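Lecture notes, part 5. Sequence design as translation. It can be helpful to think of inverse folding as translation between two languages: the language of shapes and the language of residues. The source text, in structure tokens, appears below.
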């Protein structure tokens, strides 16, 4: 099976290309410079050249706060781009795995995990544009597409909350971290593994279509996550102090509750992602090594 990964220069894109290469797959990764998914001509040429059977769209406008004043640009990348990819997949008989986000939900009043079929209600420009992309993919490519919502991603490549905590641990005596927002810290390498598994199922026409939630099991606050990062790094977790969202005002409101349910994985015969603590325990040494390499270079 021939794979094409868009947004291959980002955290999840790089991990997905790496996972597929480890499996011996025929994979092409195109970063933003190599493929602008908002350019219909460029998309058509990429399909003509690479003839993908499965496309994974990791390309996205992810500047959540900037999107509040740049919604048109965010919509072009997060909404129009996925539509162009889905149309190209339909034309060429390819399948599409599209990466989305927990921001399609409001996160305001819920206290139990959002099921995959819960009605979306985004509160931010970023969430609205990502929802537009979901709907475009499912409309243009029904029966041959999967939407993967993920959240609280961290990984070896690129910026993340976990990386920031590792860096600040060495520079500050104490840290104030929000304790009134709950979600699922998720290692991008685990998501990449599930993308590869899902692509294989899609290729066999097993009915593994529609919306799935690719987040780690369990839940935590940012404060919980920061304490666990400190503990695993050999630092005193009590150096992390709890605060609330009022201490960090942002242009785009963050969901207070972003925990996603995982029933759909079981329905298609795959296990949900593992518990977030287990993943973080495995991921952290790789991240520390990556930070050290960046400093040395």
């Amino acid at each position: 099976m021939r794979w094409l990964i868009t947004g291959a220069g980002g955290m999840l894109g790089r991990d997905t290309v790496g996972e597929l290469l480890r499996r011996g797959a025929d994979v092409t990764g195109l970063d933003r410079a190599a493929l602008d998914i908002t350019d219909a001509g460029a998309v058509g040429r990429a399909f003509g050249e690479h003839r993908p059977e499965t496309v994974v769209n990791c390309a996205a406008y992810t500047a959540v706060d900037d999107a509040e004043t740049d919604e048109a640009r965010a919509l072009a990348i997060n909404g129009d781009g996925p539509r162009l990819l889905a149309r190209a997949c339909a034309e060429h008989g390819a399948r599409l795995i599209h990466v989305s986000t927990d921001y399609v939900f409001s996160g305001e009043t819920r206290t139990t995990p959002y099921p995959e079929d819960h009605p979306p209600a985004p509160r931010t420009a970023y969430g609205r544009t990502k929802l537009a992309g979901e709907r475009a993919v499912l409309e243009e490519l029904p029966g041959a597409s999967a939407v993967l919502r993920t959240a609280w991603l961290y990984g070896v490549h690129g910026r993340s909350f976990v990386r920031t905590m590792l860096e600040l641990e060495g520079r500050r005596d104490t840290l104030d971290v929000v304790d009134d927002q709950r979600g699922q810290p998720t290692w991008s390498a685990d998501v990449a593994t599930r993308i590869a598994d899902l692509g294989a199922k899609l290729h066999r026409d097993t009915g593994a279509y529609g919306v799935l939630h690719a987040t780690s099991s369990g839940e935590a606050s940012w404060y919980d996550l920061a304490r666990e990062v400190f503990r695993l790094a050999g630092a005193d977790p009590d150096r992390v102090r709890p605060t609330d969202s009022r201490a960090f005002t942002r242009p785009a409101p963050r969901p207070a509750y972003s925990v996603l349910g995982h029933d759909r994985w079981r329905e298609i015969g795959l296990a949900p992602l593992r518990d977030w603590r287990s993943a973080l325990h495995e991921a952290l040494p790789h991240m520390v090594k990556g930070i050290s390499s960046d400093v040395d270079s």
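The translated text above is only one of many valid answers, since several sequences can fold into similar shapes. Residues 2-159+185-218+259-274 form a domain with the Rossmann fold fold (CATH 3.40.50.720).
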